[in-house]
Design a protein that fits this description.
It is a single chain. 30% of the residues lie in helices and 25% in strands. It is of the alpha+beta class. It is built from eight helices and seven strands; from the N terminus they run αααββββαββαβααα. It is globular, with a radius of gyration of 21 Å. Strand 1 and strand 2 form a beta hairpin. It has two domains: 142 residues, Roll (Pnp Oxidase, Chain A), CATH 2.30.110.10; 39 residues.
């Protein structure tokens, strides 16, 4: 496959050119932005079992990572501060290393069945403070650290993206069997998949066992 090249004359490279392409936003879209967590934002966070956190490394390279747990897993410390437990993962530490280098973060909270989302932008700090981590323990296992976010911008986001994607609509669910297993895809993209189907099934089973053992 040959590399795609953009035609320079069609590149939008400044904000003035960008805004000429769109109608002006309405006043409510501008006014909904807050610097503190409202009662509605707090209720949304309490119900959310999943968020995505966007970070940026020292060289400007962007990253987005999922975080999930039981509804309300994000602790509200006050109306300007949140704490996200760092549960066991693959230990790449992409998000955490980025926070150390650049504290600016963006959060997107989702609730299954809700077409709206909650967006929060702020500044993050990593902490191992014992009393905070104690309150985040699950099955007597504390996270190694928490991501504490000082809220700078917070607002609810409309449903258009979810309506277009039919994300929660059962009739639009796709069959997971139409793509290979995670282990198969990783092997395809790295060292190559084992030829023996039985060996592949064993690797898939081992991954599932690891999920059960290392969720917390």
């Amino acid at each position: 496959m040959s590399g795609f090249e953009l035609q320079p004359e069609f590149i939008v490279a400044d904000e003035v050119s960008l805004r000429h392409l769109y109608d002006a936003t309405h006043a409510l879209a501008l006014q909904k932005e807050r610097q503190t967590l409202s009662a509605n934002a707090l209720a949304f966070i309490r119900r959310s079992p999943f968020l995505c956190i966007g970070t940026q490394g020292p060289g400007g390279r962007a990253d987005v990572s999922p975080r999930g747990d039981a509804p309300g897993f994000v602790t509200v410390l006050d109306d300007r501060t949140l704490a996200i437990p760092d549960r066991p993962g693959n230990n790449r530490l992409d998000t955490l290393a980025n926070v150390v280098a650049n504290p600016s973060v963006g959060l997107l909270f989702l609730i299954p069945g809700y077409d709206e989302t909650l967006r929060i932008n702020g500044s993050a700090t990593l902490t191992t403070q014992p009393d905070l981590l104690d309150g985040m323990a699950v099955n007597e296992r504390r996270p190694k650290l928490a991501i504490v976010v000082a809220v700078e911008e917070v607002f609810l986001h409309c449903a258009k993206a979810f309506r277009r994607s039919h994300l929660w609509d059962p009739e639009h669910r796709q069959d997971r069997q139409e793509m290979p297993s995670l282990m198969q895809m990783i092997l395809d993209d790295t060292t190559g998949a084992p030829a023996d189907p039985a060996e592949m099934r064993k690797m898939d089973e081992n991954l599932e066992t690891a999920y059960q053992k290392t969720l917390y």
